[in-house]
Design brief:
Length: 236
């Protein structure tokens, strides 16, 4: 196992439904993501981007093949073991933010830490630190409905970041934002990648994202077409 690889899919397939209605969402995918990289996953609607991110994020399980996260083969893990792995190594950012509406920004960001063995003071310090990092310290007692889309996505990024993950997966993080706000969210993800060396995988159709992230994986009908990250890493 190459320890430069943070996440790897080996011959992974995923199907939805059964019989005549069965859909092949991922078709024998082989793909590696290297530590410290920022990569964009590009493909038409329905090509399998979200499915791929959900498998990498241990939110769903593949039907065939192996998903390896930080050297750990997740294939035979229980749902509880997967949840623990996700909590310690992975942050997920969704297109529609997925914040809990009845919790403030602070409480949304705090949530993942409540599942960890951490004292209150350390939790408070860490939540304040990440809210600072995403530029939202002065909004920490606001509810999602009291914030703009860009601010809500910053809260979601802070929540993804709070457990110090090695990998952040962002499924179309700018799709519900205007282009200026989307560019700000991309700046934030790029700076986390640069400053904290967190590996980031973003799926997107957004030209703001495609113009700025140079490592591209193209997916079509559940198959990887051109893995420019492999080329990039091969040349590096
Ligand atoms: N829960 C599900 N049940 C049945 N089919 C599904 C389910 N989720 C996804 N699919 C199908 O699997 C394929 C891949 O879907 P996926 O959501 O991964 O694509 P995507 O590239 O993320 O699309 P989009 O850009 O529209 O979000 C599509 O044909 C989709 O219709």
């Amino acid at each position: 196992m190459n320890d430069r690889i943070i996440a790897q899919l080996i011959n992974v397939s995923k199907y939805y439904g059964s019989g005549e209605g069965r859909v092949t969402a991922l078709n024998h995918v082989n793909l590696s993501f290297f530590r410290g990289d920022i990569v964009v996953l590009v493909g038409l609607s329905g090509s399998g981007k979200s499915t791929l991110l959900h498998l990498l994020g241990c939110i769903d399980k593949q039907d065939e093949g192996n998903v390896i996260i930080d050297g750990i083969d997740t294939s035979s893990m229980s749902l509880e073991q997967l949840a623990n792995l996700r909590l310690s190594k992975i942050g997920f950012v969704f297109q529609s933010f997925n914040l809990i509406p009845v919790l403030t920004a602070y409480e949304n960001v705090e949530l993942p830490l409540l599942f960890k063995d951490m004292d209150k003071k350390s939790i408070r310090q860490r939540v304040d630190e990440v809210l600072d990092e995403v530029g939202l310290h002065d909004r920490k007692h606001h509810y999602p409905r009291e914030m703009s889309g860009g601010q809500q996505q910053r809260v979601a990024i802070a929540r993804a970041l709070v457990s110090k993950p090695a990998l952040i997966l962002a499924d179309e993080p700018t799709a519900n934002l205007d282009s200026k706000t989307g560019a700000g969210i991309l700046d934030l993800l790029m700076s986390l990648n640069k400053k904290e060396h967190i590996t980031i995988v973003v799926s997107s159709h957004d030209s703001v994202v495609l113009d700025r992230i140079k490592s591209v994986v193209h997916i079509r009908d559940g198959k990887i077409m051109v893995d420019e990250t492999a080329l990039h890493n091969h040349l590096a």
